[in-house]
Amino acid sequence: MDLILQQTINAISLGGVYAMLALGLAIVFSIVGLINFAHGDIMTFGGYGIFLSLAFGFPPVAALTIGIGAAVVMALALERTAFRAMRGADVVILLITSFAVSEILKVLFQNGISARPVPISLPASWSGTYQIGGATIGVVPTVSILVAFGSLAGLTWVLRRTATGMAMRAAAQDLEMLRLLGVRANRVVAVAFALSGLLAGIAAVIWTAQRGSVDPMMGFFPVLKAFIATVLGGLGSLGGAVLAGFVIGALEVMTQAFLPDSLSPYRDAIVLGLVIAALLWRPDGLLPAANANRS
Amino acid sequence: MDTALEIRGLDVRYGAVQATRGVDLTAPLGGVTALLGANGAGKSSTVMAIAGARRIAGGTVSIFGRDMTGAAPDAIVRAGVAISPEGRRVFSALSVEENLTLAGSVLGDPARAADRKARMIERFPILGERRRQLAGLLSGGEQQMLAVARALMSGPRLLLMDEPSLGLAPQMVDRIFAIIEDLRDEGISILLVEQNAALALDVADHAVILANGAVVAAGKPADLRNDSLLQAAYLAA
């Protein structure tokens, strides 16, 4: 019982990170058709933002905020310098552009900061635990879950209830028509990138708080899982990305917790095998996008 | 300034394909100008180039006497142009009201946008009845009304209407054409693209016929109605 509760907390907390990353990928994809391979590097940059601001003596809460801000700024900068010029290009060309951007950033991180992990030391009091019915629950995973749900709810509110969100939903369906109404597309696209950067920054905060270090590949592995989530959820489907992010987080934690040790090297293979099976069953994803035929 | 729109030598290309070649077109102020021709004659390319959504490879577009060649769509909307595009292209995942609100947001004045939305709902009562419904659930005719209402939200003086009657039941076509005449009577200049030439010539003050991307005839509807060029233009595709 305790183990199940603990593992459930772990699953939701990991799934929350995947869900935020997948949602960021899906927002950008749904509007400009870009599968942003550099999303992981935006997250990594957020992690370095935390590391550097702690190194410069900022208090922890300020450092985390600066890290989130750094990810937003990086997302906007990549949109402006790399992706805006490629707007409307074929999805494969956009994907290759994002590969290039990703490689450049990784090299900059390696040569500019360090190829090795750099430590992020947050106050010891943050790594506490508490007891529920005999189970020991970490404070960080609990806060992670609250932050992830808060972010997802906030983003849903922005998309459903604000003028900008309305424009983004319209842009996801028909960006050209939105421009024909006189709405400035560049602004809508920039907001989409900023929101995806915001989510990547929050994911970076949760990730570094749990792991205590940053390295040039930090964002790569969770974003790889988030990519799988966007495909499993239905490419371009925001709800699908979130749902599949949680599904993959849960699968990972469950396989880690309950598989016999002899099978643990095959953990990723088992998770991916299940994803493939799900896609054979539902080729358009768990919750297909309304206009899945685009690009 | 007695023209709403003046196009000279318009070339639009898609890669190696030339969609229009040297199109000249003048739309008088306050009238209906019909742009006719068969499928693929270059009508929609012309309209989309005017709206700023296609790169202009050659020629000039001036709107209310101002050169707007190559301007971005938002500048063209601010110059007083709106479009009801081919296929209507309403935002199907947004409600009827959201479609109008979004179009009104370019006014930058919420009070004026709300006022104009109220006037649209007065003009098209069915949109008021369905305001909370998703636009994708409307019938084709209702979607066409929404596309026109959405275009009118920015308060245009020149309205581009691309195939407004396509796929609609005959009664609904009559309604749409009645709306076109109302708008003309209110002083809005209209460029009307239609495959249904007979219908378009009934409401038009002036007509231009395209075939294979070039103008083959232009003039008064009465003179064009029996013109062999009109027949030929439709057979050319």
List the helices and strands and how they pair.
The complex is a heterodimer of chains A (295) and B (237).
Chain A: H1 2-32, H2 39-55, H3 60-83, H4 91-112, E1 118-119, E2 129-132, E3 135-138, H5 139-161, H6 163-180, H7 185-211, E4 213-214, H8 220-233, H9 238-258, H10 267-281
Helix pairs in contact in A: 1-5, 1-6, 1-7, 1-8, 1-9, 2-3, 2-4, 2-7, 2-8, 3-7, 5-6, 5-7, 6-7, 8-9, 9-10
Chain B: E1 3-14, E2 17-28, E3 32-36, H1 43-50, E4 58-63, E5 66-67, H2 73-78, E6 81-84, H3 96-104, H4 110-123, H5 125-129, H6 140-152, E7 158-162, H7 170-185, E8 189-194, H8 197-203, E9 206-211, E10 214-219, H9 221-224, H10 228-236
Parallel strand pairs in B: 3-8, 3-9, 6-7, 7-8
Antiparallel strand pairs in B: 1-2, 1-4, 4-5, 9-10
Helix pairs in contact in B: 3-4, 3-6
What does this structure look like?
- The complex is a heterodimer of chains A (295) and B (237).
- With 295 residues, chain A is mainly alpha-helical.
- Chain A has one domain (2-116, 134-281): Orthogonal Bundle (ABC transporter involved in vitamin B12 uptake, BtuC), CATH 1.10.3470.
- Chain A contains ten helices and four strands.
- Chain A has helices at 2-32, 39-55, 60-83, 91-112, 139-161, 163-180, 185-211, 220-233, 238-258, 267-281, and strands at residues 118-119, 129-132, 135-138, 213-214.
- Chain A has a two-stranded antiparallel ribbon with strand order 1-4. A two-stranded antiparallel ribbon of chain A has the order 2-3.
- In chain A, strand 2 and strand 3 form a beta hairpin.
- In chain A, helix 8 (220-233) packs across helix 9 (238-258).
- The longest helix of chain A has 31 residues, at 2-32.
- Chain A is globular.
- Chain A starts with a helix and ends in a 14-residue tail after the last helix.
- Chain B is an alpha/beta fold.
- Chain B has a single domain, classed as 3-Layer(aba) Sandwich (Rossmann fold).
- Helix content of chain B is 38%, strand content 27%.
- In chain B, the strands form two sheets. Chain B has a six-stranded mixed β-sheet, with helices on both faces. A four-stranded antiparallel β-sheet of chain B has the order 2-1-4-5, with helices on one face.
- In chain B, strand 7, helix 7 (170-185) and strand 8 form a beta-alpha-beta unit.
- The radius of gyration of chain B is 17 Å and the shape is globular.
- The model of chain B has no long low-confidence stretch (mean pLDDT 92).
- At the A-B interface, helix 6 of A face helix 2 and helix 3 of B.
